[in-house]
Amino acid sequence: MKNEKYVVFKADDWAYFMEQEGSMLSIAEPPQPLDDAVVIRTQDMFAAAGLSAYAHNIRLAMELWRGDGQYAPSSILDLRDTADYFMDCSREAEDRLARGDCKLPD
């Protein structure tokens, strides 16, 4: 698993898993869905452009905030890691597009 912050399942897959395996799990409290999450899959033929734009917007904000004093320098540096993450995702999506390993979003 590449991203250790979130784990994403398709809703149907999760429901099936819970039907089949759920009784064997000792889950004190089942995970709650995030109501503000958006999933962009790198297999989506439009993902590269969207992820790149997001990363560039974060970098632009970093530049604008750098001299403004509103945000601590450490917070701005934390954003660099976030921008880099989304740029890496964009490159992965570009590679998939170049290989023809992409599809319309579903």
Structural features, described:
- By secondary structure, the chain is mostly helical.
- It has one domain.
- The chain is 55% helix and 0% strand.
- The chain is built from 3 helices and no strands.
- It has helices spanning 11-21, 47-66, 73-99.
- α2 runs antiparallel to α3.
- The longest helix has 27 residues, at 73-99.
**So how many helices?**
3
Q: What is the H/E order?
A: HHH
Number of domains: 1
- This entry's quaternary arrangement is single chain
Cα distance spanning the termini: 22 Å
Q: How does the major sheet shape up?
A: none
The total strand number stands at 0
Question: What class do helices, strands and sheet pairing give?
Answer: mainly alpha
Content of β-strand: under 5%
Indicate the radius of gyration in whole angstroms: 18 Å
Shape: flat
Give the helix/strand layout.
Blueprint (H helix, E strand, L loop, with lengths): L10 H11 L25 H20 L6 H27 L7
Task: Give a brief rundown of this model.
The chain is an all-alpha fold and 106 residues long. 55% of the residues lie in helices and 0% in strands. The protein has one domain.
